[in-house]
Amino acid sequence: MKMNVATTVNKTVLENGVRIVSMTMPHVRSVSMGVWVHVGARDESDAESGLSHFIEHMIFKGTLKRSAFQIAKEFDAIGGQSNAFTSMEHTCYHARVLDTQLATMVDILSDIFLNSVFDDDEVTRERPVIFQEIGMVEDSPEEWVHTMIGPALWGRHPLGRSILGTRENILGFDSRKIRHFFRRLYQPARVVIAVAGNVTHERIVDLTAPVFAAIAPGNGFAPRSTPTDGCDTTLRHRDLEQTHICLGMSGVSVNDPRRFAASLLNTILGGNMSSRLFQTVREERGLAYAIYSFLTSYADTGMFGVYTAVAPEDANESIDLIMEQLRQMKREPVGVDVLRDAKAFTAGNLLMAEESPDNQMMRLAQNEFYFGDHVPIQTVIDRIDAVTPDDILALANALWGSGSPALTMLGPRAERSDPAGRIGF
């Protein structure tokens, strides 16, 4: 499958290390911009857990020349969509506007990133907002059981913690701690400005370089540690209609050459409606409304997982069915027709995502962080097309050779269940 979209990708590196990458998409009317930092929740100490996410909130709470209300009002006045997110390895502040409003968007994003004051009164007002965000996750069984799988697989390693942190930590965060963390870790060599849309690279550099070049170089910081995969079982009772189940096991890193086979394995196992898990657990047995597999990858490790929610009395049967499908992936190669369909599904989703400036902006930044260069989507599709049934079989055996997955269960009678013996490979 070939794509024929006229796009141009360019890159400029400022003297202090800030990278500016852009993709010109002349067929759209909007521009998406993200100011990315290669800093996330895994870079925090235990006492700092939740600080990256707290800073994400505080960036929008006032600068030397704009109040929090003015920031919101100015974005609204240009019809812009602005937001931010924190992940384990990155923090991103992004917006999308019509191409005619580019200069205003750049001015606002640059201001909040470079000149936020982190006022103590705003910190106090934002704490309960984050408490509510934590409460939303805890009130959502599907989200909470996913949060539980982190420590079940990776223990006390930062990758096993919640990005939101703990209420105890958040109560202790003040403007001094926020500024110290920001200055120590938000270093220019960790910053990527990614832009995609109806704009030229020269225009982006003219608008961003003069202000971002002023960031003083940092002293670097400690390298990230890689966790060891575990297989703990965590069972928590909660009065719900369903028992929510999540299994976590070894996956692949972003840089692993087997990541293309892993993507297809995920699709075949539980990535769409024709997948083995969906057809077996939902369509044939009628045990679940929602069941899927997922693949989470980081720079040095990854997690392959499965989620479902079933009636409490069906929990053990469902786990048995999931494990049987995992074992089958290890026993025999997938059919040629099954692999062909998975490749078409994956390529189709990739190509449709390429039509969005937001998705292109995110790919630009992620490729720059992990590979140091732009990776054309056609290169990705070619690598996917090259995967064979034997590649998937070998990967399944390499990842799940022995032992057991980590398991988390949340719901009625979960504490009285004893499924640990059911999940060995």
UniProtKB/TrEMBL annotation:
Domain annotation Peptidase M16 N-terminal: ranges: 19-166
Domain of life according to the entry: Bacteria
A single MF term (Gene Ontology): metal ion binding
A biological-process GO annotation: proteolysis
Cofactor needs: Zn(2+)
Record Pfam families: Peptidase_M16, Peptidase_M16_C
Domain (Peptidase M16 C-terminal) ranges: 176-343
PANTHER family recorded: METALLOPROTEASE, MITOCHONDRIAL-PROCESSING PEPTIDASE SUBUNIT ALPHA
Stated family: Belongs to the peptidase M16 family.
Name of the protein this chain belongs to: Peptidase M16
